[in-house]
């Protein structure tokens, strides 16, 4: 044998972060995204006018709703089959974009159309990702 046999290794890449970092990220990322989303929704609704107490309340309530829904989707969507998994995540993203757009004063029809277009595009991307990386039972193959 002229060449050495390849060394046996891990089937997966090693994880450089410990469990505490993953737990902090699992809740930290939705909180940061929710605060940005709440500020964005409040700014859209304010439309350049003065910042009021009701505007701040709207922003914080929107942020809390986004955080709760984002954590729920991230927790429960992976338990579903790949089709429903893709549909839940894309539906959440489409509804979030449609709600933001509706706060600008546009019609409900345009907001719905934009939300559905975003959801359809994200569904295609997520479905392709899960279809190529999971078997029919939802087990990862890569």
Describe the structure.
The protein has helices at residues 19-46, 53-76, 82-102, 108-133. It folds into two domains: 26-79, no CATH class; 81-142, no CATH class. α1 packs antiparallel against α2 (53-76) and α3 (82-102) runs antiparallel to α4. The protein is built from four helices and no strands. It is 70% helix and 0% strand. It is an all-alpha fold and 142 residues long. Keywords: Membrane, Transmembrane, Transmembrane helix. The chain crosses the membrane at residues 24-42, 54-78, 113-131.
Q: How do the strands and helices of this protein lay out in sequence?
A:
Elements: H1 19-46, H2 53-76, H3 82-102, H4 108-133
Keywords: Membrane, Transmembrane, Transmembrane helix
Transmembrane segments: 24-42, 54-78, 113-131
* Count of alpha and pi helical runs: 4
Instruction: List the helices and strands in order.
Output: HHHH
Give the % helix: 55-70%
Question: Please, how many domains?
Answer: 2
Q: For the terminal residues, how far apart are their CA atoms?
A: 31 Å
Radius of gyration: 20 Å
Q: What fraction of the residues are assigned to beta strands by DSSP?
A: under 5%
Q: Note the main sheet.
A: none
Structural class: mainly alpha
pLDDT average, as an integer?
A: 88
Give the uncertain stretches in residue-range form: none
The number of E-state strands comes to 0
Envelope shape: elongated
């Amino acid at each position: 044998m002229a060449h050495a046999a390849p060394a046996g290794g891990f089937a997966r890449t090693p994880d450089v972060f410990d469990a505490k970092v993953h737990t902090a990220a699992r809740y930290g990322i939705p909180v940061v995204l929710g605060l940005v989303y709440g500020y964005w929704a409040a700014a859209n609704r304010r439309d350049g006018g003065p910042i009021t107490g009701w505007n701040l309340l709207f922003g914080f309530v929107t942020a809390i709703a986004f955080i709760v829904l984002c954590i729920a989707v991230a927790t429960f969507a992976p338990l579903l089959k790949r089709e429903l998994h893709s549909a839940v995540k894309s539906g959440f993203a489409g509804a979030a974009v449609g709600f933001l757009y509706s706060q600008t004063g546009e019609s409900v029809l345009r907001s719905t159309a934009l939300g559905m277009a975003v959801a359809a595009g994200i569904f295609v991307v997520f479905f392709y990702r899960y279809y190529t990386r999971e078997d029919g039972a939802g087990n990862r193959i890569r």
